[in-house]
């Protein structure tokens, strides 16, 4: 009747402190399904919650972790039964609702997706919200009509979580992938994931300050925003598209309308959090078939609940390579 959790509290200076504690199950929030969690993971948003709360958490003490994978323990939901392997990401779990940095979670059954047989709970968290978001970006480019024959796809923030998985999926699907990174020392890692070209981030940020540059990319997966995205947009080919999901360089971007009205390019906004169930399930199905799990393994490092407070500032500084899987037990 007890479980372990990284319990977060916020001081008067907004600084968040965390301690691994043993709690009784009556502390779990309301919900119709209780899950025994195997693994959680560390995402950029988790970094915000673990350091300052990022304005995302409304009540303390709090249990963070915006995603988790595990096994249904008890269920009042007709769609799920004990023993089902499930994954959760989004729905503001880990922000407004207690999340995955615990050995148990209680949530709404509607928020859970059954894992495809090809994906174990550990692999699900190696993918995590970051990898699932990468899949949503790739699906948006595909729906736009982009194929490997269309030309190169640029991935920004390539050595990060979303970027790494996007590189691996796109390469598996046969795309030529330009991986833009501020860490050229990660070039070999990105090539092993399937990148065809490694681009120093500076090639984008220091590109001439013009609203239109030479046409190069058929598509973009952008995790960074800022100048990098503006200069990438200026290099989209006629009719190309960008799937935009992140803001690692901040929310603003100094863009021009010209790529839209002179080259007919499109931008697709990607939200993983409140996405309806059908595309959510489609994304997990696609991850089961289109993400080479052996390549994914090279992106993974493992941590425990007790490591998270030290890792959080690192993900905010862009110092984490690939994905961190958290063994919560
Ligand atoms: P990571 O920190 O793992 O990766 C971000 C990467 O961006 C870094 O590794 C780095 O890549 C690059 N980067 C960091 N800071 C800067 C900077 N100042 N200028 C340029 N590049 C920078 O985070 P995630 O991959 O987990 O998330 C990426 C973004 O996507 C975040 O903003 C996150 O909030 C967002 N996100 C959005 C979701 C949605 O639903 N829309 C879901 C999941 C994530 P490199 O070293 O290769 O340059």
Automatic annotation (TrEMBL):
Gene3D superfamilies: Medium-chain alcohol dehydrogenases, catalytic domain, NAD(P)-binding Rossmann-like Domain. Residues 18-326 form the Enoyl reductase (ER) domain. CDD domains: MDR_yhdh. It comes from the Bacteria. Pfam families: ADH_N, ADH_zinc_N. SMART domains: PKS_ER. This is Oxidoreductase. It comes from Reyranella aquatilis. The lineage of its organism: Bacteria, Pseudomonadati, Pseudomonadota, Alphaproteobacteria, Hyphomicrobiales.
């Amino acid at each position: 009747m007890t479980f372990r959790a990284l319990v977060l509290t916020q001081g008067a200076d907004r600084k968040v402190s965390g301690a691994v504690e043993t709690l009784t199950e009556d502390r779990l929030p309301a919900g119709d399904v209780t899950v025994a969690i195997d693994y959680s993971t560390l995402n950029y948003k988790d970094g915000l919650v673990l350091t300052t709360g990022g304005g995302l958490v409304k009540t303390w003490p709090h249990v963070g972790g915006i995603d988790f994978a595990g096994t249904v323990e008890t269920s009042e939901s007709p769609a799920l039964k004990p023993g089902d392997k499930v994954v959760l990401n989004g729905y503001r779990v880990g922000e407004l609702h207690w999340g995955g940095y615990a050995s148990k979670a209680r949530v709404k059954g509607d928020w859970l997706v059954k894992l495809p047989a090809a994906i174990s709970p550990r692999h699900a968290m190696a993918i995590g919200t970051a990898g699932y978001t990468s899949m949503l970006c790739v699906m948006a480019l595909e729906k736009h009509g982009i194929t490997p024959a269309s030309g190169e796809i640029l991935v920004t923030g390539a050595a990060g979580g979303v970027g790494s998985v996007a590189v691996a999926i796109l390469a598996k699907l046969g795309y030529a992938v330009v991986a833009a990174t501020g860490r050229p020392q990660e070039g070999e890692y990105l090539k092993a994931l399937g990148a065809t070209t490694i681009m120093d981030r500076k090639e984008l940020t220091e590109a001439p300050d013009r609203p239109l540059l030479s046409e190069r990319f058929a598509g973009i997966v952008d995790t960074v925003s800022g100048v990098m995205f503006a200069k990438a947009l200026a290099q989209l080919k006629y009719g190309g598209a960008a799937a935009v999901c992140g803001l690692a360089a901040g929310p603003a971007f100094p863009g021009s309308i010209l790529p839209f009205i002179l080259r007919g390019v499109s931008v697709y906004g990607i939200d993983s959090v409140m996405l309806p169930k059908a595309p959510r399930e489609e994304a997990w199905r696609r991850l089961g078939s289109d993400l080479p799990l052996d390549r994914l393994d090279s992106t993974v490092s493992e941590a425990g609940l007790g490591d998270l407070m030290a890792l959080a500032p690192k993900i905010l500084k862009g110092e984490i390579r690939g994905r961190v899987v958290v063994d919560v037990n």
